[in-house]
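Posting here for the record, re: fructose -6-phosphate.
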Amino acid sequence: MCGILGYAGSSDILSVLVSGLERLSYRGYDSSGIAIISDDELCHWKSEGKTHLLVERHLKNLRIENFSVGIAHTRWATHGAPNDLNAHPQLSMNRKTAIVHNGIVENFAEIKSKLQLSTTFHSETDTEVIVQLIEHFASKEEFSFREALCLALKQIEGNCSFTVITEHDPKVIYAVKKGQPLIIGLGKNENFIASDMNAILPYTKRYLNIQDGEIAMVRQDGYEIIDFDGKPVAKKSHVPSEISGTLEQANKGSYKHYMLKEIDEQPEVLARLLHAYAGDGKQLDFMPALNSKNLNLAKLERFIIYACGTSWHAGLVAKYWIEEYVHVPAEVDISSEYRYRKGVSRRQDGVLALSQSGETADTLAGVQLSKEQGAAKVISFINRENSAMEKHSDGVIRSLAGMEIGVASTKNYLAQLLSLYLFTLHMARLKKTMSAKELARRLDELAVLPSLVRKFLLNKAAIQKIAKKYSSYKGFFFIGRGLSFPTALEGALKLKEIAYLYAVGYPAGELKHGPIALVDEKMPVVTIMPESDTYNKMMNNLEEVKARKGKIIAIATEGDERALAAADDCIFVPRVRSYLSPLVTVLPLQLLAYYTADILGRDVDQPKNLAKSVTVE
Ligand code: F6R
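Prediction output follows.
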């Protein structure tokens, strides 16, 4: 979602801001813009579309002299179409103050209708309301800019973090944190504001979190933090940290797309997780951090799992594992449903919140809600470091997937699955629902997983061929049973989001309760049918589809001659125990979506309308 960057320093400001915008672009965006104070005057440029358009249209031959501070933004439209007018920065009517913003002003219509008596608005955004309101106070002589900002903040409702520069105070970037993440990057004789460390990694790894309810005032030579009442916040409550990530992680190397690179990184991610959490398969030292926090996991009597999108699919798989091996019920919700459905979480419930980014607004709200409702413990499975969700959780299990840039989640999904499986084993040990011998056997068998996945990924050409064969079809079904049902959902989601094709996942047993009406020779059906207890049932479903002339792409266990003979096309996955099948059956589905999208010329890494971190509801 929207990315924010601010710079106070003396390096070439345009190149710092433009390169930062490029590093924020992975979040998904539809327009971008920049504002700079030069010779104490505000100037700005913005453009719909990708950052290269901003550069080509406005910045190509520009040289900025005598600058003090600048801000930049990638916008993911919420209020108003993605066009030049609605792009950020948004300016006050007198063009003295500029803002870039992430989040939503819930009461913007109300504020706007009051301001409209004296102010002309130029955009449809809620953002413009903030800057006009600030300027409404700032242009009165009795208020300093800082006071004006605090007065405006008293009226603004909703989760919205933003950054402002102004001719009233031309050497300062004002950064307001109200929900969405914002950090101060601390460089040598230069400082930054960013919504995401990635934007400033080439310049510094030292950063400071701005907390909710705080305003940071950042200059080239330092910073000051105040609260929304304008009172100073003691510096000792803010200790700078250092990020461990490197720039290399955000590099495509020789790959055409980040997504393909990230799919190929999966064996490495699995190996890293096994090393970190399962002593390379030899001991179940599952996150000493969880034990040391006195989480009392053995006492939990139910799990509530929530997440969005791909992370939700990982949660659905975990339900099967937890119920079968830990013998406690597990409920799975989509976060945006959970937070409004007035469910109950009690002292005996463990909540598992799953999120790659740790920033997803609905999942974060769920974490806060569960704590308010008195859930025993909230354990988050998160990939990114230093997220808001992490701060609100009792325990965190990191996915260790490394930076995921492609908007479509791939390697983090596999990492979530393995973490959840290991967590299940850990719980089974604590609850004594699995013998030590069985536990040891299960850990031992995991050791080969990375090499099985690596071997599978060496043979992509056949999948690319199948993608080509079916790329002209307009709709797809994905069906599976048991553990393969969430995989069907995930395969369909991948195809929808990056290839823009209609694709729907179904539990195979449901097909004949309605959806089969859509099956004909124009509707390919992907059947996810690894060896399992329900294999024969899946075979029956396959035959039902064939009888209606549906084309079958079967995902089956290597050596499965029946599937090979029955399907139009068959992709074999490595042989693993059926309970581990979700870790291998999703691989061909990721590749099928990837190649189809590429063949159709889609923007694979930044599909239209999508954002990597969904920080608004
Ligand atoms: C799909 C995808 C999304 C995310 C969802 C949740 O490929 O990436 O569906 O899974 O937006 O994001 P996180 O996991 O960051 O909470």
